[in-house]
Amino acid sequence: MTTLGSAPTAAPAAHGTPAVDHPAAHALARRHRLRWWEPLPWILALAFYFTFPNYLGFGTELLITILFALSLDLALGYAGIITLGHAAFFGVGAYTVGLLAFHGLWNEPISSLMLAAIVAGIVGVVSGLVLLRTQGLTLLMLTLCTMALLEEGANMAHDLTGGFDGLPSLPIPPLFGFFEFNPLFANTQYLYALAVLLVCFVYVRTLVYSPFGQSLTGIRENILRMHAVGSPVRARLVTCYTISAAIAGVAGGLWAQTNAYVNLGSLGLDRAATILIVLILGGHGRLYGAFVGAVAYAVLSHFLARIYPTAWQLGLGLALVIIALFARNGILGVAAALGRRLGIGRATP
Amino acid sequence: MIFGIDFASILLGGIAAGMVLFIVSVGLSVTMGLMGFVNLAHGGFAMFGGYVIVLAMNHWGMGFLPALAFGFVVTAIVSAAFERLLYARLYNAAELDQVLFTIGLVFIMIAAVTLLVGPENQPLTLPPALRGQIDLGFTSYRTYSIFLIVVGVVIVLGLWLAFERTHIGAQIRAAVDNRRMAESLGINVNLLFTITFAFGSGMAALGGGLGAEFIGLDPQYALKYLVYFLIVVAVGGPGRVGGVFYAAIIIGVLDFVLKLYLPKGGTIFIYGLTILLLLWRPHGLFGRKET
Predict the structure, then answer these.
(1) By residue range, what is the domain housing residue B250?
(2) Partner-chain residue, chosen from B100, B107, B268, that has the shortest CB–CB distance to A149
(3) Which of A130, B35, B140, B194 has its CA 20 to 30 A from that of A147?
(4) Residue B216 belongs to a domain with what CATH number?
């Protein structure tokens, strides 16, 4: 971490200009500061709570999607780990909460979420230690196979997990023994999910602006160079993958708690592909991509599915093809490019 | 039970399934080996071809074999157009963009087929000559499975000859082993790629049509079996025709046996073995290390 911690001041000096006055140095030193618009998503989320009390179930689902996409952003957007199997950790978290509650072992919401994070983190560190030795197609296949392995395992252990049908009506007790999870009025679920998202977001934001986060970006951009400057590349990747897995586990646990059920859908290729699409739609490697992507995905699916259910899949496919061909950084990337062209200061980095 | 006569029939059933896997996957393997392009839409081309074949038979009264040829040609032409117009833009793009693009393409294909044909499974009626049982001397077995094995062997021999004995085969092998060197020698790798892409998609179409009788054909086909195709390619080693063949047979037989004796979740072993194999040899059983 020391090598990178000093990078902002050391790099410009190499060009012969005084380190402190270089604009890049200023930009790097100020990267982590709150910008004026950053409280906006949270204000909007609270406004949603008061203006659309009938859509809070939908809102909760949206918040969980954001959290899951955020965890993927850490691995894919920042560290450049291309995974097709991130739903594995979501599923592990969901099943941790579900199994403990269903079999009457433990169901207090907040500590259950922590357990989900720990179990998903353990799966993350074990699989990460093994898988992250590879890259490219092999890594893609390995993440895919690991997820399929877990899915088949959950399917096979029918007596424990309920197999294909999953575990219905989990007994989730009230939050703090007071706020009930009412399936019809999702007020508690919404605020609970929002609070968990805020905590995780603050953690991820701190992480990506730390020297550790900067080294992840370095690994993504030029892995050879990071090896050359003596950065412990594999350890960093495994750490990042583990943290990302733990957060995905929290998202999965939250999903199980707020829906009061778990099924195989929580760890299939469908979910893994969907979350990848959400993140890419918003823009990866830029923190708020998860937010923009989840909202855009929800809005798109709402309107297109209303026209015709299949139109939704068609629209999604077209959106992906267009993004891959023309707009490689998603909605936020396009917005940033537009902002630069119009000369509106420096847009979101 | 597993030995004796049953052993033969298990082996035959597994090999027949493996042949279909091979026919679908071989194109994917060569395009991945040649361009390093992660083409997740390959299963989509197999589905597209399968639909062309089944619809040609059911609606235009085409015979089984002419329909197979028709499906091959149509899919090859369509895929060549896709390759020139869209895929070619992404050869130098990041892997992530290739993955996204091809997933998007799969979604478009699934939606298009659902809209145009409908979401239900398309039944394929075999010609009378291929139905029923055939007497092999030591055992009698489903005629169609034997037909699949014969077709598979013919195709693998044909491909082997084309790869090892023709000029274009030598060019492909050279480009798979060292693309830059091949280009330096004046081999037009882009043209080569278009040809193999079209041919590989045509083969996938054949596989889609040949397999439709026992693995079904519906819009979800493109995603449902994708993992299997990818496993075959990864195990065999991208760009290795022989490797894909052996891998497909191994996985076909393994899958057949597991489905028979462990109908619930037996595939877990296939995933587990694939993970172990890829950790042991990241370039597959028969792949060579990249140069």
Answers:
(1) 5-122+144-280
(2) B268
(3) B35
(4) 1.10.3470
